[in-house]
């Protein structure tokens, strides 16, 4: 770490520390990855999801405790398990000036459930049978089956009907959010506030892949804000910079190792358990992440109402070796049992994590080849299930129906996010029941069964819940980090103008 800090100090001495921004009302936000799309129908990667909150609005939105409240919808009723009626607020407009009407909502939802569009979010809305527009401000959603989580997911960004009926356009959109897209270049995206309100008239999201460079830009004032894209080994240095403010809080972001359960080696649950037991997660989080993460046993954080009490995964390399022997994979003359391919992105933090994990597995006789890919290519392969092992994080988890998307046998790609192609008839049945039962107590009991079976089958290797780490420059005042990592509070921050 000392070497990295010395490099930062030398770089600062060379380039100086004067901010280069000429527009004092533009907020500069640093991202490790450029968003893949601004189309709400296709946004699933973390960077794209964060951008949605600025450009788009849904029928509903979620508060800090993940409770539903109205957004475009003024009110709604749910008279039967298969019927939802919504009334829209009047006077809400898109960035082109046209008013948001019920036909726009209907067109957006119909597009997402249309197999021809191939939206990656189609499975989330598969219970919708049809949408009827009653008039400009009223619509009815008919379901083919009860779906207890549908209301939570109706925060999907609404598009004008003319765009919603068209194909995916990653770099162009018209939304009804507080900001509109004005520029998309190689280095980032610029959003302009619509109308009056707030001191932040524009936001520039810049892609800065190298973490040391992100620190330099924060320190020099070229960036005003970075969240969760700073490796913890640089945090002590950041804490010493008087012009920077660092805030942390526990989050719902779940980090894990994904496994291809259809693979000839990894299809054996004993091998998967051995991989988990061979990982010293405490050592990993302390060495690589300054001890900040909370160890996880399942996707939902312990504070979530549907979270189950699960036994911790111990670090037990001796038992891991026994399981590998029992599975029929003894060490050969070179001490190697077999080899696995581990895919990750080119992000330095992810690479360090993959290298440390590979070293731990090497100690129990498993050779690991690490394949790092640029984000777009890496994520595309993961989405279609082209991997043996990979590491990623689930961000923005708000509803326990996430388990349906990642575990149900009907959610294999491209329909859903069961990328490891897990299949368990009991889990399918519990998930189907939990999707229609509206009583929270009954849902909690069903999801507890799902979580226990998921851990027993080691469908994923849980790592930890990543902390929210937000770092602001001297101009930014009033940002409050949120547990799901959303950046909506940036819309309401205040600029502190510096004396020149």
UniProtKB/TrEMBL annotation:
Instruction: Cite the SUPFAM superfamilies for this sequence.
Output: Periplasmic binding protein-like II (SSF53850)
Q: What are its GO cellular component terms?
A: ATP-binding cassette (ABC) transporter complex; outer membrane-bounded periplasmic space
CDD domains listed in its UniProt record? PBP2_NikA_DppA_OppA_like (cd00995)
Q: Where is the Solute-binding protein family domain?
A: 68-401
| Pfam families given in the database record | SBP_bac_5 (PF00496)
An MF annotation (GO) of this entry = peptide transmembrane transporter activity
> Could you tell me which InterPro entries the record lists for this protein?
Peptide/Ni-bd (IPR030678), SBP_5 (IPR039424), SBP_5_dom (IPR000914)
Q: Which GO terms describe its biological process?
A: peptide transport
In the record, which residues are listed under signal peptide? none
Please identify the protein, giving its name as recorded. Answer: Peptide/nickel transport system substrate-binding protein
